[in-house]
């Protein structure tokens, strides 16, 4: 019998930061609004997403600033899990500039 693990590994590839912002997204040619709870370079978690299913592609408008004229990122993501009210979204081929913007936001929030 092999060794047992006494600790839990963090399986996340990227650090996450609280976002707590309202985001808009297109899914199936319709515009929706939800709340982004957290974000990382690889994706984000949404709440209030009764309309999305695993595999859906979303075009997200994500504010990375409290300022009305602050940084707004346009991201494409795919729903990787959903429980009806919440969903995990993995970014699909984000532009380098956007990755750097998200990375900067996560570092500043830490």
Care to describe what's here?
- 25% of the residues are buried.
- Strand 1 (17-27) and strand 2 form a beta hairpin.
- Residues 1-10 have low confidence and may be disordered.
- This protein has a 6-stranded antiparallel beta barrel.
- It is globular, with a radius of gyration of 15 Å.
- It is built from 1 helix and 6 strands.
- By secondary structure, the chain is mainly β.
Summary of the model, kept short:
With 110 residues, the chain is mostly beta strands. It has one helix at residues 96-109, and strands at residues 17-27, 30-39, 43-47, 57-63, 72-82, 86-91.
User: Helix proportion of residues, in percent?
Assistant: 10-25%
Number of domain units: 1
**Physical arrangement of strands within the biggest beta sheet:** 1-2-3-6-5-4
The main sheet comes to: 6 strands, antiparallel, barrel
Question: What attributes characterize this protein structure?
Answer:
mainly beta, Thrombin, subunit H, six-stranded antiparallel β-barrel, 45% strand
Give the SSE map:
Blueprint: E1 17-27, E2 30-39, E3 43-47, E4 57-63, E5 72-82, E6 86-91, H1 96-109
Antiparallel strand pairs: 1-2, 1-4, 2-3, 3-6, 4-5, 5-6
């Amino acid at each position: 019998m092999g060794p047992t693990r006494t600790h839990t590994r963090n399986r996340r590839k990227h650090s996450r930061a609280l976002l707590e912002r309202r985001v808009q997204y297109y899914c199936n040619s319709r515009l929706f609004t939800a709340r982004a709870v957290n974000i990382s370079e690889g994706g984000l978690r949404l709440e209030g997403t009764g309309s999305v299913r695993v595999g859906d592609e979303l075009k997200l408008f994500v504010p990375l600033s409290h300022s009305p004229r602050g940084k707004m990122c346009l991201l494409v993501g795919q729903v990787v899990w959903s429980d009806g009210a919440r969903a995990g979204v993995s970014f699909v081929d984000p532009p380098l500039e956007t990755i750097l913007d998200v990375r900067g936001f996560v570092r500043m929030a830490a």
